[in-house]
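Student: I would love a firmer grasp of how sequence relates to backbone shape in proteins. I am handing you a single protein, as its sequence and its fold in token form. I am told such tokens are a discrete way to write the fold. I hope you can help me see how the letters and the tokens relate. Take your time, and here it is.
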Amino acid sequence: MIKAKKSLGQNFLVDQNIIEKILNIIEIKDENILEVGPGTGNLTYEIQRKNPKKIIVIEKDNTLVDLLKDKFSSKIEIINEDILKINEENLIDEKLIVFGNLPYNISTEILCKWILNTKENPWFKYLILMFQKEVADRIMAKFNTKNYGRLSILANWRLSIKKICDVKPTSFSPRPKVDSSILFFKPKKNFFSLNNSKNLEKITRVFFMHRRKMIKKPYNQLFDGNSKVISKLKIDLNLRPQNLDFETYFKLTGEYEKL
């Protein structure tokens, strides 16, 4: 019996109905698959039955790696490594469809890494990811709502996002204390072009550092009080960070790159 490790944020998906729902989102026959955090291989087994071209799994836990080797032998490629230390661009020459029941403690870090390090032509075809519901709500949030913030802006810059469903704690072993959500991400063909994605990360970090305060102070900190940008983008400095929509943050970053 494999015991989940709290330190690695492990909650194994055991609900067959949810596994089927995940696999019905997109056709994966003859596709290249990357699964992050396969755990005991319940989803991996069903992925394999759909006859993909190749399955790569990334698992940090040595005990689970041994289990997966016994269970799947050479049918899958197993990488025993921390996902945050991997360069996905080097895994394979073709695009990947990514499945992931992401560890709650690093899920936002993983997603931000994939967004900010993605080149013009992304290494992935689609992302099908499980998050803590609270995190998923932040990813999906629209401006002028309480959940809207840095994560919403970063995710919606390069990706179209669709919520598939919420998942109850009973679908996992051990049961987490919170609900989860499955999100489907597709790279946008048209997105606001930036010289360096890290600048969008910086702009949103500075603006949302004090999310309940007016944006005058963070604006002046970044733009040194430049009034031309305010006029050009028609920004009211008495607004709060959550009152500016996605496009305004993208344009602000573009103007910041021109300084």
User: Anything to note?
Assistant: The chain is about 35% helix and 20% strand.
